[in-house]
Each structure stands twice: as structure tokens, then as C-alpha cells.
């Protein structure tokens, strides 16, 4: 518990910066809905007929002049991309920072197994993601009270639950990479998040690479699919759980056996 509290304290600044920035941006876009709704009615039909572009961003199955469609196609993308990048950042940093900052010599001399330290490190990662989502989701819920329009709260809840699972998968995979590295590979982590997002877009446009939908966590958590009531991708969710568990176990094994730079 002491290590958990230490990690939360050490990461509270970045948590507040990321969560409040994304919360303000997403809530601000929601509050703009009434001022752009009339204009959206004029272009909704055009956007829905833009071929692959419409298909990639869900505009072919959602009416962007409604609050549901506007939220799914415009607002939620900020949460999706921002959450993935934040998850990648904390996942890649939480282990490797000890060697990079030369604090491993202090931390790993305590009379505790490395596995004990790793468990609490991973727990802190999950708690940070939970707080991130509580702050950003809470800001959106509050903003809904100030606009005319009805959001489907069931779809909203499903979207955020699956987004949290997506973030946990990305954070866990980057947590595994962190166990390999003596320095924080922030560029690599951000690249993984962005490539995974682009993979979701590409597999919706190019039928020949549709199989990669099982490799990207953005596919099963796609907000347009959820708000258009498409079937949930349970295989993708299962893959996410499997990747999360395997990443954690491999990180535990690798970090427990390799020589650490102190």
C-alpha cells in the first residue's frame, strides 16, 4: 500500500494535466453542440455519403446533427485517442523510470520480492487509469445537463467501459515493454497507440486487412459501432483480456530475472 500511495503521488501531476485537458476539451465540444446543431443538419447528409471517409469514422450510420451522433463522431474521439496515449505513457514509464532515474538501487533493496513491487506498480497503473476515466467521464456527464438533446446513457456507459478495457490493454502491453527497457521509451509507446488507432481505421476501409481488427483494441471499443447498436466484438474483448494477462505475467517474469541498472 505504501508503494501504491507513492506511485499515485508521483504521477498525480501528469494525471491531472492529461485528464483535465481532455475533460475540458470534450466537455467544451459538448457545450458547443447547440451552436453547431443547425449547421450540422445541413451537412449531415453530405458527410454520410463521403464513401470510405464516412465509413471509417462512423458517419455513414450516425446522424451528426443529433447529440448521440455528434458525441460519437466528434467528441468521443478525444477521449479515445487521449486515453490511449495516456495509458501508453504510464505503462511504458512505471517500471523503466526506476532505472532511468537511478532509484532502482533504493527500491529493490527492500526485503521484498521483485514480484511484490511489480504487483503494486501494476495496481497503481490501474488506479491511475480509473481516476483518469472518472474525471473525463464526469466532466462529460456534467456538460450534458447544459445542452438540449438526449444522450443514450446506456451506450455512453458501454463505450466508456470498453474504452477503459482498451486503455488497460495498451497500458499492460507497454508495461511489458517497460520491463525490458532501462529508459522510458515514450516515443515507442505513443507510436503503438497511434498505429493501433490507424489500424482500426484501415481495416474498416480495406477489406483485405479486416483480420487486423482482432489486433487493435480500438475496434471493439469503437464509439460509432456502440452508438449505432452494432454487435459487440466479444472476440476482440477476449483478445484484450488475454493480452493483458500475458503482458502482466511476462513482465513479472522478465523483471524478476534480469539484471537491473542501478
Automatic annotation (TrEMBL):
Keywords: Membrane, Transmembrane, Transmembrane helix. The keyword Transmembrane helix applies. The keyword 4Fe-4S does not apply. It holds the Pfam family ABC2_membrane_2. GO terms for cellular component: plasma membrane. The chain crosses the membrane at residues 12-33, 116-136, 156-179, 186-207, 234-254. GO terms for molecular function: ABC-type transporter activity. This is ABC transporter permease. It comes from Streptococcus ferus.
Amino acid at each position: 500500500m505504501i508503494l501504491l500511495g507513492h506511485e499515485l503521488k508521483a504521477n498525480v501531476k501528469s494525471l491531472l494535466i492529461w485528464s483535465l485537458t481532455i475533460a475540458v476539451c470534450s466537455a467544451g465540444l459538448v457545450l458547443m453542440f447547440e451552436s453547431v446543431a443547425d449547421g450540422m443538419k445541413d451537412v449531415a447528409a453530405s458527410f454520410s455519403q463521403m464513401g470510405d471517409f464516412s465509413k471509417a469514422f462512423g458517419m455513414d450510420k450516425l446522424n451528426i446533427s443529433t447529440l448521440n451522433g455528434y458525441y460519437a463522431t466528434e467528441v468521443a474521439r478525444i477521449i479515445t485517442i487521449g486515453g490511449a496515449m495516456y495509458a501508453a505513457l504510464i505503462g511504458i514509464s512505471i517500471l523503466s523510470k526506476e532505472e532511468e532515474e537511478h532509484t532502482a538501487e533504493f527500491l529493490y533493496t527492500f526485503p521484498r520480492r521483485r514480484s511484490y513491487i511489480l504487483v503494486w506498480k501494476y495496481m497503481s497503473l490501474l488506479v491511475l487509469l480509473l481516476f483518469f476515466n472518472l474525471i473525463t467521464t464526469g466532466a462529460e456527464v456534467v456538460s450534458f445537463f447544459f445542452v438540449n438533446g438526449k444522450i443514450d446513457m446506456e451506450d455512453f456507459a458501454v463505450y466508456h467501459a470498453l474504452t477503459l478495457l482498451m486503455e488497460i490493454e495498451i497500458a499492460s502491453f507497454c508495461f511489458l515493454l517497460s520491463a525490458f527497457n532501462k529508459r522510458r521509451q515514450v516515443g515507442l509507446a505513443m507510436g503503438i497507440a497511434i498505429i493501433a488507432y490507424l489500424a482500426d481505421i484501415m481495416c474498416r476501409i480495406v477489406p483485405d486487412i479486416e483480420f487486423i481488427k482482432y489486433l487493435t483494441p480500438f475496434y471493439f471499443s469503437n464509439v460509432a459501432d456502440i452508438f449505432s447498436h452494432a454487435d459487440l466484438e466479444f472476440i476482440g474483448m477476449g483478445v484484450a483480456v488475454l493480452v493483458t494477462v500475458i503482458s502482466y505475467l511476462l513482465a513479472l517474469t522478465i523483471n524478476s530475472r534480469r539484471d537491473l541498472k542501478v
